[in-house]
Amino acid sequence: MNRKLLLIIVIIGFITLTGCASTNTPKSSSVDIEKEMEVQTKLELISILRYQKRLDNISHPIMRGGHTFCDGKVTSGIGLRIANKESFPDGLQKAAEAEFGLDNHTKVLWLVEDTPAQNSGILAGDTIISVNGYKISGGKEGLEDYKEALKSAFHKSEPLSISIQRNGQEFSYAIKTDKICEYPVTAILDATPNAFADGNMIGVNSGLLRLFMSVMWP
Prior knowledge:
The protein is of the alpha+beta class. It is 43% helix and 22% strand. α2 crosses α3.
C-alpha cells in the first residue's frame, strides 16, 4: 500500500476515534462551574487576608519605628485592621459576606500583634460606631471616616476614644496611639517575589512574603 495513503487512513482513523470518544465525555453543568468559581473565589479571599494579616504584623513595627523618616506623612495608629464588604473588589464581596460575615458596617477583622489595640478589650468582629466622636458610617465612606478620625487624633496627647458594638451591646475604650507612617501596606496575591511603592501606598507580593517567611522560619 502506498505509504501516503496509509498515513491518511491512520490520521482519519485517529480523528474518528477521538471524535467518538468526545461524545461520551461528561460536560460540566453551569451549576457545577458556578460552584467551582465560588470555591476559587473563597480561596482567593482567604489567601489575601492570610497574607495581609502576616504583613500587618511585620509592617506595623517598621511603620512605627520609622515614622520620623516619612517626610511628615504621619498619622495615629492603634493596630486594628478594619473592613466592610466594600473594602474588597466586586468579585470578592460575596465571599467576604459569606465567609466572614462582612456587610456594609465597618468591623474589626483582626488586631495587629504588639500594638495598643491588642490588649484593649476590642475583639475581632466588633462593629466600630465612633472614633473620637467621629461617627463611622458604612461602606467605603466608613473606611475614610476611620482614617480621618485617626489623623485628627495625631496632634492630641490624650488616648483615642473608640466605641464599638458587640452582640447588641455598646462598649467604649480609651486607647493610647502610636505614631506611624501614613503609607498603607497592602498584600497582593502574586507569586513573584516583589514589592513596590507609588508614593501613596506600599504593595508587597505574596511571593515575597512566602520567601521572607521561609527565611525567617525555615
